[in-house]
Amino acid sequence: MSQQVAVFDLDDTLICGDSSQLWTRYLWEKGIITDPRFIEADQKMISDYCAGKLNMQEYLATNLQAISQIPHEQIDIWLTDFVETKIKPVFYPAARKQLDIYHHQNIPVIIISATVSFVVKKIAAAFGVQTAMGIDMVMEDGCYTGDIQGIPTFREGKVVRLQQWLAEQNLSPQHIYFYTDSANDLPMCRFASEVFTVNPDIQLRAAAKAHGWKQLNWAL
């Protein structure tokens, strides 16, 4: 039984960019989304997220309208192509290397992201990460709705969901490594044993200096 676990944020941590925004752009390029308001909503989401004032339910209710009539099987087909064409090219080489190190050491790796779970899990699987958590969405008639199911993996919710998962797995690790770029993850930083900030935002950089957290600069 592992005494250690490694937890990674996804957006701007493992990848150079925001997977939610990249996904919307992918749907736009494919002509699946034709209303520019979805692109605008994503831009607002990014600025609200950075300012620490994002209303996640409001954003997802808008964002998922675009695909609310599309069967999840079709979404999954698009996601496979999306990961190949849009995510793999922006995955930090240093992130891949770090994931490999943990895999070789048999340390469980978990990706926890504030992006919807059907996107997060697809990306995680492509990089050999078995455990991934995102914001679970309610499904109706085989389609994703804009309603959040359970506790969203956002801010304090990431800690709660990780604790639930550890309890389910009967794990009580002595050491939790955590990697993130964002001050939205400060609750998780405080919960972890060892924090690595990846290209941190201003607020997180200040916290890293105050707490002596390691600062990494990952580039493509």
Write the layout of secondary structure elements.
Layout: E1 4-8, H1 19-29, H2 37-50, H3 56-63, H4 72-87, H5 93-104, E2 109-116, H6 117-126, E3 131-135, E4 137-140, E5 143-148, H7 156-168, E6 175-180, H8 186-191, E7 194-198, H9 202-211, E8 214-216
Parallel strand pairs: 1-2, 1-6, 2-3, 6-7, 7-8
Antiparallel strand pairs: 4-5
Helix pairs in contact: 1-2, 1-4, 2-3, 4-6
Organism: Xenorhabdus cabanillasii
InterPro entries: HAD-like_SerB (IPR050582), HAD-like_sf (IPR036412), HAD_hydro_SerB1 (IPR006385), HAD_sf (IPR023214)
Keywords: Hydrolase, Magnesium, Metal-binding
Description:
- The longest helix is centred in the middle third of the chain and has 16 residues, at 72-87.
- The chain contains 9 helices and 8 strands.
- It has a single domain (2-214), classed as Rossmann fold (3-Layer(aba) Sandwich).
- Helix 8 (186-191) links the parallel strand 6 (175-180) and strand 7 (194-198).
- The chain has helices spanning 19-29, 37-50, 56-63, 72-87, 93-104, 117-126, 156-168, 186-191, 202-211, and strands at residues 4-8, 109-116, 131-135, 137-140, 143-148, 175-180, 194-198, 214-216.
- It is α/β, with parallel strands linked by helices.
- The strands form 2 sheets. Strands 3-2-1-6-7-8 form a 6-stranded parallel β-sheet, sandwiched between helices.
- Keywords: Hydrolase, Magnesium, Metal-binding.
- InterPro entries: HAD-like_SerB, HAD-like_sf, HAD_hydro_SerB1, HAD_sf.
- This is HAD superfamily hydrolase (TIGR01490 family).
- One of its GO terms (molecular function) is hydrolase activity.
